[in-house]
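[job 0412] stage=fold_complex status=start
inputs:
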Amino acid sequence: QSALTQPASMSGSPGQSITISCTGTRSDVGGWHLVSWYEHHPGKAPKLIICKDTQRPSGVSDRFSGSKSGNTASLTISGLQAEDEADYYCCSYAGGSTWVFGGGTKVTVL
Amino acid sequence: QLVESGGGVVQPGRSLRVSCAASGFIFSNYAVHWVRQAPGKGPEWVAIISYDGRHESYADSVRGRFTISRDNANNTLYLHMNSLRPDDTAVYYCAKDAGFEAATGEFDYWGQGTLVTVSS
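[job 0412] stage=fold_complex status=done
writing structure:
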């Protein structure tokens, strides 16, 4: 159950797009269509923004999109806005009724 | 809504129980998880209990020391933590699974967390 690998930080200007990667193994990210992504503003509860690799829950902005290739999942934030400044975490099913998170990526809007 | 309680400072080797009170949904229809986050680190999945309490699963780091349980009559989730270690220091969150009577690992509602500090 090793943590998934995410870049520690990323930044972009308003209106730009950024893509956050989440790398695991065939036992987790690459083995199931069960990667989810969370947005976390400090002091608030995390929010589910992507599930099942690519699906957006109802009410989530279409500026957020998910994709996956092999053992790496990605979250793209398009049209970056000031309110997108937050921590982003990926999470994957890892088999045997266990899950594993990424280390998190801090997004800064310049 | 999910509201955790019971955190605090505890000495290494001691025990602690944290709770999570649920409201606003039919608690007995959903699996629930505990997720923790140590200071400055990413989240770590800790444990899951099925909607009916019949099935549990744990992260390797806590298996044998922690026990997850639930009281569906009172809409409450528990985490019993034994043999606590300094590396168990974290904010402990309860999180509702999005799947109806199934575990999807999609955490659609989270509490605000309760801080557990293991220190002498």
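[job 0412] summary: The longest strand of chain B covers residues 90-100.
[job 0412] exit 0
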